[in-house]
Each structure stands twice: as C-alpha cells, then as structure tokens.
Write a structure and sequence with these properties.
heterodimer, A: 501 residues, alpha/beta, Rossmann fold, eight-stranded mixed β-sheet, 8 strands, 56% helix, B: 374 residues, two-stranded antiparallel sheet, 14 helices, 10 strands
C-alpha cells in the first residue's frame, strides 16, 4: 500500500550522512533548528561518527546539558576544545562549549592595547552586553566558528546553534550587532565628544536641535550614568569597530562558501517542522548550502500491518468478556469484518481525519467551544460501529491520567485472565503507537510536500536519553542508515517514513 | 456573557498600549495574577499557557494571553491570523469567560513608551532611522526584556474603575534556559541605569514579578533532559527571588502494561498468541507474528514508565505542586486545547474548594520577599 509519504520520499531525497561527513571538502556542518529537537545530541553524534571515520573533528556546542558532556566522558566543557577519550577509528573528536563572555573578552584583549582593553572590560555596559543579552550568544558563536576555521587545525567543525527564540536569529544576530557597532547610532552616541561637528548633523539630519533632543532624551530615559557608560564603551571600542564588522561579514561569507553544510534538525511535530521550513526557506534565500533535514524521535512499528482500529477492536473483545466466551470468540465478528489487508482501512481513516480537522475545527472552536468534541472521536465514529466509538475514543486516546489502565491492576500474570488483560494492554499500546506514527507521517508529509528537494535522515525515538559514547554512536548509525537503505531502493518501514506494506 | 458591570462591558476599540504606568495602581492590584509559563523547548509551553488562560477564564472571568517572543505561536495554536500589537479576543471559555491575546512587540512598546512619557512619538521615526530603536529593542542589554515584561505587568495592573481589566494574565515566556535572566533583567537594568525613568520602570516591574501576584510555572516532559532543566530552572528562579508556581508535566502517556505481566507473557508467548487470535486478530500463525513486536513495544513502554517514575521523583523533590496533562493522541488541535483547559480547570476548582481561587497555581511564598506595596 503506497501512501503519500512514500511517493514524496523518493530515494534521491535520502540524506547520505556518511558521504557528507567523509567528503574532505566538507569543513563545517551547522546544525540548526528550534529548541528541544535534539540539536546538540545530533551534533555530538555526527562529530563522533566523523571522528570514528577518520576525521579530526571538533564539536562546538552552545548550551549542552550536563549529561551530554558526561556522555562524551567530559566532566564539563569549556571554551577550549578538549579531546574526547574513548573514540575508535583513526580520527579524533574534540568538544567545546561556547563561553560567550570569555570569547568576547578575548576579542577585546586581542584587538586593543592593554590599557584600553581594561577600560572596556571594566565598563558596566560592556559587562552586561558580553554576559549574554539578545544577540551576543549568536554573534559569539559565529565569532568562535570563524576562529576555529581560521586556525585550520580541524578537518571538520560541527556547530550546534544557540537555543534562540527563533532558529533564524542565528543568521541575523551577527549582522545586527555588526551594523550596530558600525552604525550611525554609535557615531551619534559619540557625538557629544565632537558636538558641533558637521559629521554628526549630517548623520542625523535633524540639525542641532534634533541632536541635542536625542541625547537629552536618551539621557533622561536611561539616566545620565548609563549614557555615559555607553559613550565610554563606544569610545573605547572605537578602533575595533572595523574589525567587528569585517569579521562578522567574513564569517557570514564562510557560511555561504563551499565546504559548509547546514543540517536542519527537527522532531516530527508541527511546530518543529514549521520552524524547519522557515529555516530551509531562509537558507535558500541567503544562498546558504542546505545538506538536509534530520528528523529525530521518529516512531515506528514492527507490526505496522495491524491498524490502530483493529487493535482497539481486539482489545475491547478481550476486555468485554473475551475470556468467558473464549472458545466461541466474542471477537469473531471483527475477524470477519476486518480482513488481513488492513492498510486501506488505516489510510482511509487518516485521510478523513485530515480533511475533517482542516474544515471544521477553527469555526467550531470559535462559535461554541463547549460543544467541541475531540476530532479523534469523530474520526472513530466513522470508522467504527457506533457503540465502540466513545469507548475507544475515550479510553485509548484521551486518557486523563496515566494510571487508569485496567491491565495494570488487573488479574494476576500467568492466568488466562492475566494473559487476556495483558494482550488488551499491548493492543492499546500498539494503537497509541499507530496513531502517533500516523500523525508524525502526516506532519512530515506536509513538510515534504512543500520542500520535496530536501534530503532527509531520521533517527527513531529511543526510550531513554543518551548516556555514553555508545549511545551517541548508535544515533550516528541511525543517521547514516537511511542512505544505505536508499541504495537498494526501499524506504524503511520501521522509521515510519517509508512505504507501508 | 456580558461584562460584570457597565465599566467592564465589551470594549469596541482595542486598548491602546501603555508600558507599565507605575503609579498608584501598584498598590491596588492584588486580585490579578501574572502567570508566567516557561519550559524547555518542545515541551509544549505555548499550549499549556493557552490552556491555562482558558482555564482561568472559567465562570465569566477574563484573561489575557501574551506572547513575547514574536513567533506567533498563539495565532498558530488558535488557528487565527497573525496577532497584531493589540489585545484581541481570541477564544471563549467554557461558562462564558473570555480569553484575549496579545503579541507584545518590543519596538512598538518602546515607541509607545516614548510617546507616553516623553511625547517623542514624532521622533520615533528619526530614532528608527539612525538605528536607535533597533539598538534599544535588540542589542542594548536587557532593554528589550524590560519592555516585554513591563508591558505584561501593565496589563496585570490595568484597571477599569475598581476592577482589574483582566482577572489573570498568562505569559507564554521564553524557555527555561533563559527565564531567570528574562525576568531578572529588570534588576540588572535598574543597576545599569542607576537613575531616571528606565531605572524606575525596571524597579517597579521587578516588584510585581517578585510579588505574590506572580507565579512562574514550568512545563516539562517526563524525560531526563527537560526534567533536569526544570530542576535547575527552579533553583535558579528561587535564587533570584522569583516566585515559582507549579510544575506542569505535559504529554503524559498512559501506562498500559505492567512489567510483571510482561515478564510472565514473555515466558509463555503461545498463550499470548492464543489470546490475540481469540480477540479476532487472525489465525494462530498470524497472531504468533504479532507477539514479538507487541512484547517489544510493551518492553519499551515498561522501560519508559520506569524512567518516568525516576523523573517524577526528581520533580517531587522540588516540593512544588505537580499537574499532569495527557498526551493527546491526535496532536493539539483546538479541541485538544479545550480538553487540556478542562483538566487544568478541574485542578483549579479543587484548589478553590480547598483554599481560594487560583491557589493551585499560585506561587508558594517564601518569607522575606517584597510585596507590591511598601
């Protein structure tokens, strides 16, 4: 049974992670995406894989969870690349975490004579600016990337991007800071020093009155103290402005250059993929090279042929007297009414659900929220005998609590009743899984319909977090896996992305 | 639902925005609450914030849901067009309450602020041209966050006669990693700008944020990283003297099978196959093929449930009230949002019965924190 997903996911849309990592021309891989999609873990897993395939690799993380540092055998990460012990193969893995303030301080120290540097470092305005307000982190990540690249010590640099409010901030912030440091405002702020000079007036075009009104207002607004701090800071930084601007531009160009590859990381969820779509479009607009999309936490099923609806029917049979009537089988009607080929059934239900939701939900909720029923209930009503609808809708999909399952406190294991109740529990679990899987496929299909050219690699959802190199290695294997499968022309079913049979 | 008095009848024109007017109102507003909802990325904080705004709007109350990160997540969730910089009714709650929404825009808030206090509206364009507005809203340390929190505080305190305009304001705030800094920014700015209106503004906002009018709720999943971040975030907020409210555990999946049952079934797969077959899933052979995958799925589930137990214990150690919301099988569509709101609302009602409106989501006070009125 072919579905939309399999058609969209043609083999040439498979992301070949190993080819990307192995190519000596690949020098920078930037992992971007919205928060909570596993960007940092992806970056670390890619770094490990590249290292174990022979490349001297450094991973620049921005804000890693402590556990991730530990998973790489490091107590903590700092602003200097540290060798990760215990990797196999010929390459090396180094890891570091961006320290914004340290990076900023280093720039100041490197570009100003000691006395001026001290004046800047001690300035309260500078101290706040460098400690991580809007934009600084993104700018410093770019700066650090530029430094790492220019040292030419690594074959491959893998960059994790900051947890920005929007993934796009990463691209915008450096320019913003650069244009500020380079801009008219700075010169205006410095104007009191050369007040009356024609330069100031030319800049503002407000004339003297406007200028003094401006500084006067700023002074009133911010307090004279802060304005003075800003002016001192600006004066002290004056000689460095050109440098900031130049480096920000250089790093931006570096990102556009061959040798850089962007990987957009997402989870198969609406918000994450929407953000991913923005990013894909933006990269395209900025002529930045997109290597592909990594979809983390994709659910799959080894029993994909058993639809959620049939599983729920069977679970009910088991729960409603399936035991008593065992021999004759209360469930027989289902067996006859739902034959072996179950995929059409599932597909139909899915399509119905999609249309239904799109057409009616918004109005309904506005007009009469109290009357709104969960969309899934309606879906079930159509694909089930009426008496089953509310039961399945409520118990399987809309459990209000995590503990209301009959099977947990049910009959003791090993007895026929116990077996039946376990079987029912497992079937409900399977139904949950199939619903989740369907939703993920729909969401991903939506993305791929808009961006069919984007190559995709996926990583299955794992029950727990990554705790060690072995865990990262296994994620790396999953990342590379799809490309191999593409060679023999089959999409995988277990990742929930490919053909379902 | 008609307003509860002539002065609260529906407004025809949207309210014009004022950044916190820090005058006498400070002393009056004790009923209003500011609910700040944060959480690690991907935990569904926008959804929880919206559900909370709906829940708090029960029985004819009026709430405001504000967004501060310019991502239009609220519009997306409610399936409406992009929110402008004005308060707009976005939903009707069960029982006739109303939810308004506002996407706070730092630039507009700044221009309004300048106009309001300095009559500098005309200069706004000039300021913008030379990059001063950009500077103030995107680069200057913390000013942007001062404007955003300030606007939310203004909505909390805004009154129409004797009554607050909004019974509660719910903020869809920046993620856990940045929340203490975001809320604490006023303190920092007050320290930077040592005198003047920005200083005063920042200090007054900080008083509200640290008062019992405010509660910071953290949304998490029962997974290691989000839980760790939540626990760290709670410590950070407490250290900053900010009032932590409740932990909302989102997307909780039902436990379907117990580990003992699974172990027993793994020993006797034939019986399980038999049960599946009798339930109508085909002949013995086909049922046998299902046993392996189903047991594997059950095993994963049991493993996850065990991990979730550990995470619950971690969360319990914070001593904060914890509320669990179910994972919605079909994603959060509008109907799902109302279901989550109903879940939260029943919590609120329980708490109301036990000790006053909103107690369930109020912050636990620690002694020595400043009140709003001194």
């Amino acid at each position: 049974m072919s579905s939309l997903g399999s058609e969209v996911l043609a083999p040439d849309a498979e992301l070949d992670v190993d080819a990307l990592l192995d190519d000596p021309a690949t020098r920078i891989v930037v992992c971007c995406g919205s928060g909570g999609v596993g960007k940092t873990t992806t970056a670390a897993a890619l770094g490990l894989r590249a290292a174990e395939r022979g490349r001297r690799t450094v991973v620049l993380t921005i804000d890693p969870a402590r556990r991730l540092a530990q998973s790489m055998g490091l107590d903590e990460l700092d602003n200097t690349p540290r060798l990760v012990p215990g990797t196999g193969g010929d390459g090396e893995l180094h890891a570091m975490m961006l320290d914004m303030k340290r990076t900023f301080d280093e720039i100041v120290e490197a570009h100003a004579e000691p006395e001026r540097a001290r004046a800047i470092l001690e300035n309260p305005f500078y101290q706040s600016l460098s400690a991580g307000f809007a934009g600084t982190q993104e700018y410093m990540a770019m700066e650090k990337l530029g430094q790492l690249r220019s040292r030419d010590e690594w074959d491959l640099i893998i960059v994790d991007t900051p947890p920005s409010r929007s993934a796009l901030d990463f691209l915008d912030a450096p320019g913003r800071l650069g244009s500020f440091l380079d801009g008219r405002l700075i010169k205006l702020l410095m104007a009191p020093a050369r007040v009356g000079g024609r330069a100031g007036m030319k800049f503002v075009n407000l004339g003297m009155a406007g200028l003094s009104m401006f500084t006067g207002a700023l002074s009133k607004l911010l307090g004279a103290g802060l304005l003075r701090d800003v002016q001192t800071f600006v004066a002290a930084m004056d000689t460095m402005f050109g440098g900031f601007r130049t480096r920000a531009d250089a790093t931006y160009r570096l990102l556009q250059a061959p040798g850089t590859a962007f990987l957009v990381v997402a989870a198969p969820e609406r918000d994450a993929l929407r953000e991913a779509a923005y990013f894909v479009e933006r990269l395209d607009a900025d002529r930045m090279p997109l290597a592909g999309l990594v979809v983390n936490r994709v659910h799959g099923s080894e029993a994909g042929g058993l639809s959620a609806e049939r599983a729920l029917d069977a679970a009910e049979n088991l729960e409603n007297g399936g035991i008593v009537d065992r021999a004759r089988g209360n469930g027989q009607h289902s067996a006859t009414s739902a034959p072996e080929q179950v995929s059409p059934h599932a597909t139909a239900a899915r399509e119905d659900g999609t249309t239904e939701g799109a057409q009616t939900d918004p109005e309904e909720a506005h007009a009469s929220p109290a009357g709104t029923r969960p969309a899934q209930d309606r879906l079930d009503t159509r694909s089930h005998p009426a008496e089953h609808a509310s039961a399945t809708g409520n118990s399987a999909l809309h459990n209000g609590s995590s503990h209301d399952t009959a099977s947990l406190g049910g009959p003791s294991p090993g007895t026929p009743e116990g077996t039946a109740s376990l079987a029912a529990g497992l079937l409900r679990l399977h139904a949950d899984q199939m619903h989740l899987l369907d939703r993920e496929r729909r969401t991903l299909d939506g993305f791929l319909t808009l961006h069919p050219e984007v190559a995709v690699a996926s990583v299955p959802a794992l029950p727990g977090d990554v705790h060690d190199l072995a865990g990262l290695r296994s994620i790396g294997e999953h990342l590379a896996e799809r490309a191999e499968r593409a060679d023999d022309g089959h999409g995988g079913t277990d990742a929930g992305l490919g053909v379902r049979e | 639902m008609v307003g509860r008095g002539p002065r609260r009848t529906p407004r025809s024109a949207p309210v014009r925005h004022r950044v916190c007017d820090l005058g006498p109102v400070v002393r009056l507003a004790r009923v209003c609450r500011l609910h700040v909802v944060t959480g690690k990325g991907g935990t569904g904080k926008t959804t929880v914030a919206a559900a909370l705004a709906l829940a708090l709007a029960h029985r004819g109350r009026r709430t405001l849901l504000v967004e501060v990160e310019g991502r239009q997540g609220i519009a997306e969730l409610f399936r409406t067009e992009q929110l402008p910089y004005e308060e707009r009714k976005i939903a009707v709650a069960r029982g006739g309450g109303e939810v308004y929404a506002l996407a706070i825009d730092a630039e507009r808030a700044l221009l309004d602020y300048l106009q309001m206090f300095y009559k500098l509206g005309g200069a706004g364009r000039a300021l913008k041209r030379i990059g001063a507005v950009d500077f103030a809203t995107t680069i200057a340390p913390g000013l942007r966050d001062v404007l955003l929190t300030g606007k939310a505080c203004e909505a909390v305190r805004r009154r129409d006669g004797q009554r607050p305009v909004y019974d509660a304001v719910v903020m869809d705030a920046p993620p856990t990693g940045r929340i203490a800094r975001f809320l604490g920014v006023n303190e920092e700015v007050a320290g930077l700008a040592r005198v003047g209106p920005v200083h005063n503004q920042a200090q007054a906002v900080m008083r509200v944020l640290k008062s019992h009018e405010t509660a910071v709720h953290m949304v998490t999943l029962l997974e290691e990283m989000p839980v760790q971040e939540t626990v760290d975030g709670v410590a950070e907020l407490r250290a900053a003297g900010l009032p932590v409210g409740a932990l909302v555990v989102n997307m909780v999946r039902p436990a379907r099978v117990g580990p003992e049952q699974l172990a027993a079934a793994a020993r006797t797969p034939a019986e399980l196959a038999g049960a599946l077959s009798h339930a109508g899933l085909g002949g013995a052979e086909r049922a046998e093929q299902l046993v392996g995958p189903l047991l594997a799925l059950g095993g994963e589930n049991a493993q996850r449930v065990a991990l979730e137990g550990e995470q619950r214990a971690e969360l319990a150690a914070t001593g904060l009230p914890r509320y669990e919301l179910p994972l919605l099988g079909d994603g959060v569509e509008l109907a799902g949002l109302y279901r989550l709101a109903a879940e939260l609302q029943s919590r609120l009602s329980e708490a109301e019965a036990a000790g006053g409106h909103g107690a369930a989501f109020g912050a636990r006070r620690t002694p020595g924190e400043e009140g709003p009125d001194e």
